[in-house]
Amino acid sequence: xxxxxxxIALLFLFFIAFPSTHAAASAKQVHxxxxxxxxxxxxxxxxxxxxxxxxxxxxxxxKEGDLFNVVVENKxxxxxxxxxxxxxxxxxxxxxxxxTQLPIQPGESYPYEFKLKQAGTYWFHSHYKLQEQKLMAAPxxxxxxxxxxxxxxxxxxxxxxxxxxxxxxxxxxxxxxxAAASSDKMPMDMPTMGKKMAMPDVSDVKFDxxxxxxxxxxxxxxxxxxxxxxxxLRIINGSAxxxxxxxxxxxxxxxxxxxxxPVQPVQGSRFQLAIGNRLDIRVQIPPGQGxxxxxxxxxxxxxxxxxxxxxxxxxxxxxxxxxxxVNPVLNDEQEKKLKALHPFPLRxxxxxxLYNLEGDMKTYRWTINGEVWPYVTxxxxxxxxxxxxxxxxxxxxxxxxxxxxxxxxITEINGKKINGRKGDSVNVMPHSTMKVVLDTENxxxxxxxCHILYHQMGGMMxxxxxxxxPERFTTEQRVKGEQLYDLSPF
Length: 490
Ligand SMILES: [Cu+2]
Description:
Blueprint: H1 2-17, H2 21-26, E1 30-41, E2 44-53, E3 60-63, E4 67-74, E5 82-85, E6 109-115, E7 120-126, E8 137-143, E9 152-160, H3 165-181, H4 190-196, E10 209-212, E11 222-225, E12 230-237, E13 244-247, E14 253-258, E15 261-268, E16 270-273, E17 278-284, E18 291-298, E19 305-311, H5 333-337, E20 351-360, E21 365-368, E22 379-381, E23 386-393, E24 399-403, E25 408-413, E26 416-417, E27 422-423, E28 425-428, E29 432-439, E30 445-450, H6 453-457, E31 461-466, H7 475-484
Parallel strand pairs: 1-4, 3-8, 9-12, 11-19, 20-23, 22-31
Antiparallel strand pairs: 1-2, 4-6, 5-7, 7-8, 9-10, 12-17, 13-16, 13-18, 14-15, 14-17, 18-19, 20-21, 23-29, 24-28, 24-30, 25-26, 25-27, 25-29, 30-31
The chain binds copper (II) ion (CU).
Protein name: FtsP/CotA-like multicopper oxidase with cupredoxin domain
Domain Plastocyanin-like: 37-145, 169-307, 348-467
Organism: Aquicella lusitana
């Protein structure tokens, strides 16, 4: 209430000071509706969540310096919460159930209002139960205050299953319990499990399809381009449990931002894209007519997804959804190479927070320092200090770790110092260590978790707590809240 009236007072002042259309534009409220809908995936019907503005537009756009003024309307049958991934919002607006707010009940609305300090390619998604697997996720594009418009193509990439994710999760735990029962000494790591289950698959889950902007390659989006034109690709990994190689085919691309943070440009036609990460790549369309598939290859599978850039008179090729060989698994080669365009100024590190990442295959419990959410004892940090997050992945599976409300910079991989890229999500390789640094400039209770949805459900989640910042919910309230509703309605 205090917050709202404060904003209204601010707006009022704003109108007096700048009685222009600009002030009005920055205050414009957007109603974002979360709905239930039926889509067709390769001809088969499936019920999923949809996210749209009142005008039907998918996702959100904003402008750096403007107000993010969004009312989330829950038009579904289930409680939900949306989180703005990578955004430096105040803690109250972070959208995490039983941490920053209660779930939004069916038929209810919830307002979010804060100033957009960043620009680039972001996304948002449900932070509640398994809703993200049923497509409760969408792009959030913020244009720079002085950015010139350019030709763009957005690829919002998701993994898809016809199954109820509740069943997927139960099977993961059930299978593993069965496997554990049949063997006294169960190895801890995933690759061994993969072999046991006869899947050349590094992901826990076998998906029915991979989507780009909700479409498979059997009916891909075709974006018309001009010969010689430069196109900015905004590629977002909004998947629940899949990492990808982005393949530009015949085109050479220049990667210039990761997680919306500028990097020293890197040329190439293949890039790694872990869960939660975003890549901004510029490609130049060659002279003459032509069609150029932009593909994403889920690691460890023979699948692919993507869209096609095609000049006006080019024939659009039919593309197979499968690849000839198994797509390679991500590694840390790209992270070792990438450098922030504007690295953090050097500052002494005042605190190093060690996070041991482990998995217990018998129970499918994924832990941080041996703890399972919500039974956690978070580190406390002081404001306005340089701190370090030290990830020590003791498991045989990579964990894409995401920290809310802050931008970090990667400084060390497996003991080797680097002046790496900035971002909000980083894929910590199996049996590897990684260090990132950040400045504690955004007081709150902030989530730190693995972005593999089923690992998150399995407990791989904690918070970083600013000293003296009040916690809104107790562990008991979190436990009780989690038990209230079904994991997934469909
Ligand atoms: Cu994980």
